[in-house]
Amino acid sequence: MAPQGSLASVTSENTKLISLPPPVALIIGGTSGIGAIIIRTLLLRTTAPRIYFVGRNRTAAEAIIAEAAKTNPAAKVVFFQYDVYVLANLGRIAADFVQEELQVEGINSEQDIKLNILVNSTGTFNPSTTPTVDNLQPELVSRHYSRILSINLLLPYLQHASTTPLGARVLTIQAAGQENPKNDLTSAINLRDITPRPGFVTCAFHATALQSLMMEELAIRYPEIGFLHLNPGVVFTGIFRELPWWMRMLATLAKPLMWLISTGETEVGERLVRLASDEEHRTGAWLVMPDGKEKDWRKTGWKGIKGEEWEKKRAEWRAKVWVDFKETAGSAEGVQLRDW
Ligand SMILES: NC(=O)c1ccc[n+]([C@@H]2O[C@H](COP(=O)([O-])OP(=O)(O)OC[C@H]3O[C@@H](n4cnc5c(N)ncnc54)[C@H](OP(=O)(O)O)[C@@H]3O)[C@@H](O)[C@H]2O)c1
C-alpha cells in the first residue's frame, strides 16, 4: 500500500471533504491528545459535522466545545462524560449517542442513524494494577475490552453508514507493529488469573496484539466497514499525566530527544482524517502509521513464524480472542452485548 505523500497533498485532499454530507463521528478519548487532534481537524475540514466525544475531564471537554463554536459554528459537538474503565458505561455512551442523533432533523428512527467514524483513543499510561469494577486490568480495559465493546454496541449504525459517500470506519489508536501477546496467548487472555498482576507495559503490548487480531477478524466478518489499527508514532500529548511524578520527570527530561522523532499536531490530524476518509481504507483491516505506511505483522510474520504456519496461528488466536471478548465483556455487570 502506498504511503500518503506530502502533508500538502494530504491537506489538499482533505479540503475536498467540505463538499460531503455532514459526517458523524464518535471519539472515545477525545478530551486530550490524538482524539482531540482528530476532533479539531474534522471541525476544520468538514461541513456541519456532528461530533460526539467521551472522556472524564469536563473542564477539558468544555474548552474543546468552546473552541469548536468558533472554528465551525454549524457543527454539533457534544460531550459524554464517562469512565470507560467501567464496561457498563459503554452501553450508556451508545444510548446517549442514539438519543442525540434522534434529535437531528430527518432522523426518525434508529434505522436512520449512521456513524461514519468511530475512534477509540483512550489509554493513558496508568501504572495501577488495581482491578477495575469488572475485575480486569485497567490498561486492558481502556486498550482492548472497552474498544471492542464500543464496536459491538454501535455496529448497526456503522453498517448503516457504510453505503454513504464517506463510508464507515473504526480507528483504534494504539501501536500497530508492536504486538506482543502475553504467553503466546496460551493462558487466559484477560490476564486476570496471573499473579502478580502484570504491569501496564505488559498489558499495553498484549492489548496491542489483541487489537490487531480483532481488527483482522472484524474486517472478515463485516467487510463493508474499514477497521484501522493505527500507530501514531511519537506525538506530544497528555499521555504521561497519570504516571508517578518521578516517571513524569524522566519523560520531561527525554523531551528534547523525543522532539527529534515526534510528529506535530497539524500533521497527525490531517493524516488521520485522511485515513478516516480516503477510498483506499474504506473497507478491510489496516495496521498502519498515520502516513499510511504499513506496520503489519500479517505481512512481516512474528518471531520468525511466517507463511502458512503464521496464517494458521493467527486464525487460532483470533478465534480465542473473539471468544474471550464475548465471555469477558459479556459477563461484566450491566453489559448487554449485541449478538455477533
Ligand atoms: N502520544 C503518543 O506518542 C502515542 C504513541 C503511541 C501510541 N499512543 C496511543 O494512543 C492512544 C491515545 O494516546 P494520547 O497520546 O492521545 O493520550 P492522552 O493525551 O492521554 O489522551 C487519552 C484520552 O483518553 C481518555 N481516557 C483515558 N482513560 C479514560 C477512561 N478511563 N475513561 C474515559 N476516557 C479516558 C482521556 O480523557 P480523560 O482524561 O478526560 O478521561 C483522553 O481524552 C493511547 O492508546 C496511546 O497508547 C500514543
Can you walk me through this structure?
Helix content is 45%, strand content 11%. With 340 residues, it is α/β, with parallel strands linked by helices. It starts with 6 loop residues before the first helix and ends in a 10-residue tail after the last helix. It binds NADP nicotinamide-adenine-dinucleotide phosphate (NAP). NADP nicotinamide-adenine-dinucleotide phosphate binds next to helix 2, strand 2 and helix 5. NADP nicotinamide-adenine-dinucleotide phosphate is lined by residues 29-35, 54-57, 60, 83-85, 121-124, 142-143, 173-175, 232, 234-235, 237-239.
Topology (elements, then pairings):
Elements: H1 7-15, E1 24-28, H2 33-45, E2 50-55, H3 58-71, E3 76-81, H4 88-101, E4 117-120, H5 138-161, E5 169-173, H6 200-221, E6 226-230, H7 245-261, H8 265-275, E7 284-288, H9 297-300, H10 307-330
Parallel strand pairs: 1-2, 1-4, 2-3, 4-5, 5-6, 6-7
Helix pairs in contact: 1-8, 2-8, 4-5, 5-6, 6-10
The chain binds NADP nicotinamide-adenine-dinucleotide phosphate.
NADP nicotinamide-adenine-dinucleotide phosphate binds at residues 29-35, 54-57, 60, 83-85, 121-124, 142-143, 173-175, 232, 234-235, 237-239.
Keywords: Membrane, Oxidoreductase, Transmembrane, Transmembrane helix
Transmembrane segments: 24-43
InterPro entries: NAD(P)-bd_dom_sf (IPR036291), PKS_KR (IPR013968), Sec_Metab_Biosynth_Oxidored (IPR052228)
